[in-house]
Amino acid sequence: MGNSYLTLNHVQVSIASALMFLSALLSFYLGLKITKSILIASIRTALQLFAMGFLLQWVFKTESKIAVTCVLIVMTLVAAWTSTSRCARPFPGVLLNSVLSIWTSSWALLAYGNFLVFENPDGYNPQYVIPLLGMILGNSLNGISLALDRFTEELFSKRDQVELSLSLGATSWEAAQPALRNAIRTGTLPILNSMMVAGVVSLPGMMTGQLIAGVSPLEAVKYQIVIMFLIATSTILGALIVSGLGYKKLFNQWHQFEYWKVGSKK
Amino acid sequence: MIPVLQVNHLTSGILKDGLPIFSSISLDLMPHDQLVLTGDSGAGKSLLLRSIVFLEPIASGDIFFLEKKVAAAEIPFYRSRVIYLPQKPTLEEGSVESNLKSAFKNKIHQNKTFDINLNRERLERFGFGPSFIEKPAKLLSGGEAQIVALLRALTLDPAILLLDEPTASLDQNKAHVFEEEVLSWVKNGTQRSFIWVTHQKEQENTVGNKFFRLGNSV
Q1: Considering Cα of B176, then B182, then B188, then B191, what sign does the dihedral take?
Q2: DSSP 8-state code for residue B105
Q3: Which of A69, B11, B12, B165 could lock B23 by a disulfide, CB 3.0 to 4.6 Å apart?
Q4: How far apart are CA A240 and CA B167, in angstroms?
Q5: The pLDDT value given to residue B195
Q6: Got the DSSP string for B185-197?
Q7: Is the CB of residue A261 less than 8 Å away from at least one CB of chain B?
Q8: Using H for helix, E for strand and C for coil, what is the string for B43-61?
Q9: Is B59 on the interface with A (CB under 8 A)?
Q10: Are B156 and A161 an interchain contact pair (Cβ–Cβ within 8 Å)?
Q11: Contact, A55 vs A70, CB < 8 A?
């Protein structure tokens, strides 16, 4: 045993890519109209991952903390941008809200994981912080995106309910409660679901990777548990912040719901 | 006697063709005033009522409640005293009873208690049987919903009601009971008054003792 694992050469990767060609051919003959999407998605996957690979190879070697930080910042910003780009009903300041939510929640948990859990002696080792942040972002991005979408949609489609509460003397905070609760619940549902079945239905990606790389299962499990907790907390925190900031933006001190700020459905 | 509500040069923050939908509206509501608000469709009657309870943006002007300018922090209290009933009433999921007492969960009403017997009496006056109070709100007709919305407001003991065509989906009989109910409510309190939007000439004369016409951009 030991830390040996099978390395892949380019031919072997190409053999795997033949699968995507088969899928594309199949969809073409069945007239599924997703042939183009299959090809584009495959090419994007390969190109983006190779680009990331080269970047990581370089960053892992460099001693520059600034370079590492830049990578972290770019990852965070792309995640924030992605989380708003699908928001069905955008409102002014929604991008800034997402940046703040994703940034605070993911970096707080990254710091917690890196300094308190792993007690990384190098302090700031790209081999840890980049994959850690990547995993945290990938998940909290979904949570924040879902929470944001649900929050605005809930307020907008149930505007009459919100205005009813306000008309009967509710504060804006009281009137926003149902929307806030539903938004946070929706945002945290996927991660809670995957925690419910972790290990039973699915072996999470990172654990699988470690097992293949030869890490003992019990070690891999410990890592996975830590990661899951970091991801979940970051998602809950992010969903809370993005909904809270959304509340601040869409209600004012006059206990008004500023429905006129919410854009029409994309 | 001091005015219960004063609207001073109120201008809407909502524009149509570059102009505010209504501008510089002033009106006073004294105790026992039964103000009928009329105006063409689109003149902004609903918008004015909604603006008076701060549900809509206001470009300029002030609102005074009992001679005190309404401050942002006091708006929940103000809205518990000045209750707006929209044209199309909103009911929550649940029974008639849970709708009637839904507002009591708000902090502003925490010292009040829900008087179910009073509500039963009122429902009876509208000709509803004793089981009506358990009926799911989603099974109510438009007219029944308007009655429940009125009782839900009355049970909070407001000073002013802003009624936006409240009898539009009621039959003549129930519409009369509705008018009676509101009129006797006004008479049985010292500071009560209302603004009532209607398009029916007959109703204007039955419920009004003061009239205000909202013009199409004067």
Answers
A1: negative
A2: G
A3: B11
A4: 43
A5: 98
A6: HHHTSSS-EEEEE
A7: no
A8: CCHHHHHHHHCCCCCEEEE
A9: no
A10: no
A11: no
